[in-house]
Structure formats: structure tokens, C-alpha cells
TrEMBL record:
Stretches for region Disordered: 457-502
Single GO molecular function: oxidoreductase activity
UniProt entry keywords in alphabetical sequence: Oxidoreductase
Biased composition (Basic and acidic residues): 457-466
One Gene Ontology cellular component: cytoplasm
Name of the protein: Glycine/D-amino acid oxidase
Keyword Oxidoreductase: yes
Pfam families in the cross-refs: DAO
Domain annotation FAD dependent oxidoreductase: ranges: 51-400
Length: 502
């Protein structure tokens, strides 16, 4: 998203950044199966007055711009690099209701009524994406239906309880899949039960973020790339933003950035734990992919380790586990390749065609940061592990709060800004992630061992039953009669007394 800076980048750095942007665009265009060039936007080089200034041209910031422009406001978006350069342009494109925090944990923290309202907002966000991501509005968006969440352990009882809560209490269309159904769609013994969301869907994520930018421009918003923010003065009725080559004034400023907000907004950026996730797309796999993965929606495991879906008919898009340290994306190609082989041994060693990565900002409490920090200064951030629906909902909510006085952003007030712990937090986050993945792997191994043990026990019982059945069809074996009770036994007769006299 947006990156702030205290100095104008050198020509060499600017050239390198633009070269990197072109390469990234080419990679994602290859993934989408199209060579369509990505849109370019000018740098802000003149002073400007607007109603709303948005810092960050990612999913949330562009949604704010689109919605506010549609409602008649003048909007300017400032982006330090280019549209969707970070996390917003590097995701699998799954859209479904919910947040990064389990629904039971939300109820425990804020109560059932507020949780129900938050869930309804997340559903509205998903519907906004569905209405926006159409071939008419964004060509090549390539939508597909359905999402499946699979469990790494056998949790049948918990599945029933969760289905009842989602279906009855939160009016969400869901289906429970038994083990046989899951394994019919996914040829692996790693997964057990599943929760299927028929109303969920997938889109080309990079097409979507650039489509949002195009729609916002058509609605009247102005987008400026390569325009880092040097300083922000949020005091007064008209707020002021300084960039390397111009100044901007606005009645409202929306901080829709991520962990790259930088020094001028360090207090906000330090409430986010930077987490990197890397993804890959395989080379075409032909018929063997269809024989292994019949399901054509997205699949995510309940532990948040694996997330994948089929793209372009016979290629597999796969997201790796998270890390709190940045690295070159190509270093993760082998790890993702190995992970695919572990889950689907029948695919053997697949060829990785492209690898990419991006940093997300994860909050301490696990919920997004949405609301007003002070009069006229708004935040829409912390969307790590949240999904496309949540950034869309946040953009709508803030635009309508500014222009219509919608107060529903206060539902997010319990999830305040909390310091993420700096370097210590990153180390702790890495350790917790490693422990969680290790625990999930151990639980999965134990679940599969128990399943095999139950299967062997059923086979043994079937063999015993068959042996008894065959034994029962022959002549009855000769057995000695059972001993009679003592009372029925004959009493011994006293012998004659030959020494008795008369």
C-alpha cells in the first residue's frame, strides 16, 4: 500500500522501482493468462484541494475512493509506489464472509448482538466485491464459485455445532461435508470434514485491484502513484499533507496503508505486525490435476497453513505458510513445491512457474482497524488474514461515515490500536507461528494414526465375524455336558458294616 518517506528517492532507485513494478505486472499477467498492460498514474506535482485524501492505493483505499467519488465527493489517492504493489496485489482472490478471528471468540469478547452486526457487515462487503467484480466492469476477472474449509483433524461434533451457529444464528448458507465427500473432491488423506460455502467465490485478485482503480477514476477520483507522504498535519478543519513535489489539503484524511506507512505515521504502522506470505503457480499439470483435485473453488485448511485453488484449468495456485521476515520470493519455490507433494503425493514433484510475495499487517487482536482516530482523520488498516470482503466493507463504511454520518464504524471500537511489540513482537510472532504449525502437524498425524487404527480394528472385527459365521454353518462340536449343581448330584451310599454283632 502506501509508503511514506523523508526524502525524494534517487533517479536510480526510482528506475529500479519502476523496473520491479514492470516485472511484477508481467508475472501477474502471466498468472492470469493475459498480457494486458497495467494502468499507470502520474505523480502529484501540483498543489491540490479535495474533500477526501486517501493514503494508500490498495484494496481498502481504492474502495474508499470509489465509494466516496460515487457519492459526489472530490477524492485524491496518494500512493508511494504503484497501485496494488504489496499485499493487495498478491492474494488468491477468495471472497467469503467472516473475519480473521473465530466467530466464537468474537462472541466471547463483544457479545452476540454486536458479533451478529459485524458478521452482517462482512457479508455486505462480499456482496460489494461480487457486484463490482463482473466481466462487464472488470474484463478478465475470471470468477469461480464456492469455497471449502477443510479440517486437519476429525472434528465431527464441532462441525455440527458450527454449522448450526452459522446457518441459524448468522443466516449464512453453509454445508457440512463428511470425510468421504471431502476425499472424493480432494484425493488426499490429510483432510477430514469440511465446511462448504456455496455463496463464496474467487476472482483474479490483481485484476480486481487494478479494476477498482479504473472504476474509481471513472467515478472522478484522482490517483497519484510514486507520491510518498512526507508529513501529515491533521489539525484544523482543513488537513494538510506534504509530498516531495506538492502539497494537498483535505477535509478528511483516510490512512489506508499497511506496515509501510513509515516514519511520519510510525505510531500507526507499529500497531501492525509485519507478516509475509508467498504464493506460487505451477506449470500446466494436465489431466493429473483434475484426477487429484476435482473441486474447482478455493480450499483452505482450518489451521491457516494451506490455501490453494485451480486456475487456468490445469494449474495450481498455492499460498505458503506465513513468516515474519522478508525474503526473496524465489527462495520459497522449493518449500511450496514440497508442501504440494506432501498434501497430494499423486501429483509428485510439480514444476513451479511463478512465485511472488507480499507483506500484510496483522493486528494484535486479529481484527481490522476501522474508524476515526480524531476529527477528520480515519484509519482503514490491519487486514492481514481478513479477506477481500473486509477491505471492501471498510472502504464502504468509512466513505459513508464521512459523507452520510453512518456510525456503524463504532462496532470496531473495542479493537483499538495496540502496539505490536516491535522486533520482539516479530520474534514472538515467528515463534508462535512455528509452534502453531508444529502443533497442527502433530495433531494431523495423530488424527490420521487414529483413523488407520480404527480402520484396522474394523477389518479385524469383520474377519472375526466372518470366521464365526463360517464356524456356525458346520456341525455343532461335541462338548462335555456342564457340571450339575451340588444339590442335584447323587449322594454316596454308606458301606455295610460287617463287624456289627447281634
Amino acid at each position: 500500500m502506501s509508503e511514506t518517506s523523508t526524502a525524494k528517492p534517487s533517479a536510480a532507485k526510482t528506475s529500479a522501482a519502476k523496473t520491479s513494478a514492470v516485472k511484477t505486472s508481467a508475472v501477474k499477467a502471466s498468472i492470469a493468462g493475459t498480457s494486458e498492460p497495467q494502468p499507470l498514474h502520474e505523480r502529484l506535482s501540483f498543489d491540490l484541494d479535495v474533500d477526501i485524501a486517501v493514503v494508500g492505493a490498495g484494496l481498502a483505499g481504492l474502495t474508499v475512493a470509489l465509494e466516496a467519488a460515487r457519492l459526489g465527493a472530490s477524492v485524491a489517492v496518494l500512493e508511494g509506489r504503484h497501485v496494488g504493489w504489496n499485499a493487495s496485489g498478491h492474494q488468491l482472490g477468495t471472497v467469503m464472509p467472516g473475519y480473521g478471528v473465530p466467530i466464537g471468540d468474537l462472541i466471547a469478547r463483544i457479545g452476540f448482538e454486536d458479533t451478529s452486526e459485524l458478521w452482517a457487515l462482512s457479508k455486505q462487503g462480499a456482496e460489494f466485491v461480487r457486484a463490482t467484480a463482473t466481466e462487464q466492469l472488470i474484463p478478465g476477472i475470471a470468477p469461480s464459485e464456492g469455497a471449502l474449509e477443510v479440517s486437519n483433524v476429525d472434528v465431527g461434533d464441532q462441525l455440527i455445532s458450527r454449522l448450526q451457529m452459522l446457518g441459524e444464528d448468522f443466516e449464512t448458507e453453509v454445508e457440512g461435508w463428511q470425510v468421504d465427500r471431502v476425499r472424493a473432491e480432494l484425493k488426499t488423506d490429510r483432510y477430514f470434514h469440511g465446511v462448504y460455502y456455496p455463496k463464496a467465490f474467487q476472482i483474479d485478485g490483481r485484476k480486481y485491484v487494478h479494476g477498482l482503480a479504473a472504476l474509481a477514476r471513472r467515478a472522478g477520483a484522482r490517483i497519484f502513484e510514486d507520491t510518498p507522504v512526507v508529513s501529515i498535519d491533521p489539525s484544523g478543519i482543513r488537513k494538510r499533507i506534504v509530498t516531495p513535489s506538492a502539497r494537498l489539503r483535505a477535509s478528511h484524511i483516510v490512512l489506508a496503508g499497511n506496515v509501510h506507512l513509515g516514519a511520519t505515521l510510525r505510531r500507526l504502522s507499529e500497531t501492525l505486525l509485519p507478516v509475509w506470505r508467498y504464493g506460487a503457480v505451477t506449470a500446466p499439470l494436465g489431466d493429473r490435476l483434475g484426477e487429484t483435485i476435482a473441486f474447482r473453488g478455493s480450499v483452505a485448511d482450518s489451521d491457516g497453513i494451506d490455501h490453494f485453488r485451480v486456475v487456468d484449468g490445469d494449474r495450481l495456485m498455492w499460498a505458503s505458510p506465513e513468516t515474519t521476515w522478508a525474503a526473496r520470493p524465489d527462495r520459497f519455490a522449493t518449500a511450496i513445491q514440497r508442501r504440494i507433494r506432501t498434501i497430494f503425493p499423486s501429483l509428485d514433484k510439480v514444476e513451479i512457474s511463478e512465485v511472488w510475495g507480499g507483506a500484510i499487517g496483522q493486528t494484535v487482536h486479529g481484527m481490522p482497524q476501522i474508524g476515526q482516530l480524531r476529527r477528520g482523520l480515519w484509519v482503514a488498516s490491519g487486514f492481514g488474514r481478513q479477506g477481500l470482503n473486509t477491505s471492501a466493507m471498510a472502504g464502504q463504511l468509512i466513505a459513508r461515515s464521512i459523507l452520510w454520518g453512518d456510525e456503524r464504524w463504532r462496532l470496531f471500537s473495542p479493537f483499538e490500536l495496540v502496539w505490536a511489540g516491535g522486533m520482539t513482537g516479530r520474534i514472538a510472532g515467528y515463534a508462535i507461528g512455528q509452534w502453531a504449525r508444529g502443533s497442527a502437524a502433530a495433531a494431523g498425524t495423530l488424527a490420521r494414526y487414529r483413523e488407520r487404527a480404527r480402520t484396522q480394528e474394523r477389518i479385524r472385527e469383520a474377519r472375526v465375524a466372518e470366521a464365526n459365521r463360517q464356524a456356525g454353518s458346520g456341525p455343532a462340536p461335541l462338548r462335555p455336558p456342564p457340571p450339575r449343581p451340588r444339590s442335584e448330584r447323587p449322594q454316596p451310599t454308606a458301606p455295610a458294616n460287617s463287624g456289627e454283632g447281634g
